Predict the 3D structure of the following.
Amino acid sequence: MKYLVLIACLLLCVATATNAQQKHSFALSKGDFLLDGKPFQIISGEMHPARIPRAYWQQRIRMAKAMGCNTIAAYIFWNYQESAPGVFDFSTTNHDIAAFIRLCKQEGMWVLLRPGPYVCAEWDFGGLPPYLLKIPDIKVRCMDSRYMAAATRYINRLAKEVAPLQCTNGGPILMVQVENEYGSYGNDKTYIKTLRDLWVKDGINVPFYTSDGPTDFMLDAGNVDGAAIGLDSGGNDGDFATAKKHNPNVPAFSGETYPGWLTHWKEAWQRTDTSVLPELRYLLQNKRSFNLYVVHGGTNFGFTAGANAFSPTQYQPDVTSYDYDAPITEQGQPAPKYYAIRNLISQYVNHPLPEIPPAPPVIDIPAFTMQPFTSIWQQLPAPVYSPQPKPMEALGQESGFILYRTKLVGHKSGKLTITEPHDYAQVFLNGKLIDSVYRDGGNWTVTLPKTEVKDPQLDILVEGMGHINFAQYMIDHKGITDRVTLNGMTLMDWQIYNMPMGDKYISSLKKPGTADAPHDGVFFKGSFTIDATADTYLDVSNFKKGVVWVNGHNLGRLWNVGPQQRLYCPAVWLEKGTNEVVIFDLHLATEATVRGVKTLE
């Protein structure tokens, strides 16, 4: 008898394994998506693995499923996967895209893959690698041979990770998007077709789709023959009629339905409440497929936040948080709109929704003091010499800070103009801060006072605040992008100090042997002790402008102009016992306190 039981168990294991690798077909009819030949309504929630600590992937996916989603849409950020030409990471921490996709399958979710090369997403340079900007005249998102060589390398490498995970191979990937909102940028149809053909050559055999605004010109420029039409967003009969007019032989769906919105520095937090419900009700009633952008936003850790600009002198950098006023908050909690959307979806699906999973625990941390430790002026690397300023990218730097130094010969006071400062510059004369210059608005001139020093030293410290990620001004070098003039005279003979402020640089900071007078550009150190790890938000409202690290992890940028005054710190980056905090502040020179709180606001 025991042998029969053993055989039965083996057969069950074989059947389970076979079912786990069951292959599926996914196809496009004129009006429907067809999963294994039957109409299938995509109810998708978008999240980005790069913005979520890997330990929380499963909880976030389960939250989307419990809200009623059957699919996860995921942007893949090229510049997060390839840090330098040919240097890829698909294995460490949340770079492991294949692991995220397999986890979606494990949780019973399908996947819409949005691999770019360009994605927008309020992410630095829209996902394109800033190393491209080392080529002074590079043209992106077109058939520029230099751009296409890099894009081809990326597609070839990513395809090795994702091709085995298509539904046709037993994985969860139903469709792959070609580029993103291309009709809002350009009209190189050869480029779009070439990208599609590259994916096909590399083994992608599931259907493709594009995403564009529901207007004739965007769909005409952005769509590729045979691809489903994603509408950003599609919320009424007119939107879908426009798509049908463009191509009546493929289904259309709302590729991005917005339950929230992005926030820039100096703005109020975007709060859309439940305004998305009428659009969702329309989509559900009419059995239209849709993707919620985003169901969960996550965080722009480090220097990954992008920026918008719609004129040559406009610049709108995104805050560190990518909470997005999404149904699932930055910390993984259900927002009020989560319950409203869950209730609405439950009325249109023919199965009970799963229980809502618990969110990670949160803690308060009593205030602790951050003491000045050293200054940027005591930690300068060896300089690069240049006749005139060069942007970061020309020197192999992609983010962080850069210092330009010269001696004033000839004119020594008057009107100093920086053309152009990207993005936030401090002007020092003989070590004293004279003024700050912010890129937005085009007011890039300051007045240098007279000095008794024979050859005054001019320092310009520039912070890059994120490469532009959307529309026509995406070629966005950081630092000083052209020249500096004083009363019209072009200043020459510069020393340039690259300071990308990577994690290794921060961990290697040492207290100098001699004290530094109170100065702008100070590093602070402090610590706190906890008995158990849990998520928290560090309230940095006593600081002015800079960057925060906890135990060597870059939490992102701070700026007292708001609205963000609290930075998300996940439990997985904390230690039971003592935790070290480092803050670099451009303007604060004296000690200040930080505390941990449980919420973003």
